[in-house]
Amino acid sequence: MDFLWFYKFMALLWKNFILKRRQLVALIVEFILTLLFASTLLLTRKSLIIKKSGPFNYSLQPVDELPALLEMAITFPGRWELAFVPSKSVVVKNIIELVKRDLHYNFSVQGFSSERDFEKYVKQENNSKKVLVAIIFDHEFQNSNDPLPFKVKYFLRFSSFQRNKYVSFFRTDGWETGVLFPPFPSLGPRSQSNSNGGHPGYITEGFLAMQHAVDQAIMKYYNHTATQKLFQDVTVFVQRFPYPEYSHDYFFTFFGIVIPLVILFIFSMNHLTLIQSIVWEKEKRLKEYLLMIGLSNWMLWAAYFFTFLSLYSVIILLMCIVFFAKIEPVPVIQHSDPSLVFVFLLCFAIATIFFSFMVSTFFNK
Questions:
Q1: Is residue 278 part of a domain?
Q2: Which member of 12, 90, 100, 175 has the lowest number of beta carbons within 10 Å of its beta carbon?
Q3: Which residues form the ABC-2 type transporter transmembrane domain (predicted)?
């Protein structure tokens, strides 16, 4: 008597497999698609080469020189402006004058009482084109002669548009300061041919030169003699870290775009079949009949779950064989554990089955 539920459950599984066997066309199409996917993947893996690149070593870049774009009349024919906030502080004015002198460029200095006033100014016609940078000191100066605090905080506000067009990269967005990592990581070094770092242009737009000049001016404010002596025989450079040799596998570009779509398409076949089977039983009132003869509701759902989980397991097993088959030059997936990939896809299959259960409750025919 204790095993009666087990016999009922096995009868339900047998019923589901019989119904699945009668849908022979859908079953054959499903396995043909899996084999077609496997052959396409293996042929693509065999045809795409693996290219060795590197190592990369980068040259030194000075940070005390402004970019050449300031001397190009085609960039801006007038005189570049250096804006600062707040304008009422004598200390800030002196620091800006030191910055102007250290950069050896005849900037037109423009002060503003607040950052909002500066924003109104650059929104006017052509004003944003002539302002190279705005130096915003984040400190409340009560009086014009207030000293600079020991903990100095300032912002450099450059134009969001790329001004230096004579470089090997083009920046479509702003400075992207809110992003720690690129949305699409590269296999090798970013901007691998640019010793200046490339995108977004911290050197080519003059950001590092301006930052270095402001820091040096702040140091001179606190101790002019010591700072002058320190930088008298010192030249500051920046240099990118070298990058070792790496393998550039063009297959992963194809793999990252196509494989998720293919897996989703293969899994959707069982997904649609499962929904159709459940809704068909409700439409024909077979589910009510099964409940009337003593079967439990959980048995019906569990039988469908294990029936389609077994079908998904066969498909996932075939996919793992394709992923880890030893072919030339290398397998499709090289550095992952097959059991981990199998469990991962199996979890996705389980989630798909439960999603199918949820969708089936919205339909009666």
A1: yes
A2: 90
A3: 208-364
